[in-house]
Specification:
The chain is an alpha/beta fold. The protein has four helices and three strands; from the N terminus they run βαβααβα. It starts with a strand and ends with a helix.
């Protein structure tokens, strides 16, 4: 699982590029990707639009999302 956090909107293109690189050039099988941070808390469905596998609004939620994403992969 790769976790990516972003707070500022101007970081969104870098997050999208990182997700695309992980999906196309990263290890196989491709890692599951969970995002968090202020950017995603203000736009709760954005994670789906950019191709992440999950979103955690805070640390506890992120841990739970990682557990669920990990189980889905198995």
């Amino acid at each position: 699982i790769v976790c990516i956090s972003a707070t500022m909107l101007f970081n969104l293109p870098a997050v999208v590029s990182l997700i695309e690189a992980l999906r196309t050039e990263g290890p196989r099988p491709a890692p599951r990707i969970v995002v968090g941070g202020g950017l995603f808390r203000h736009a709760p469905d954005l994670w789906k639009e950019i191709g992440a596998d999950g979103f955690g609004a805070d640390l506890r939620a992120g841990i739970e999302v990682m557990r669920n994403v990990s189980q889905e992969a198995n």
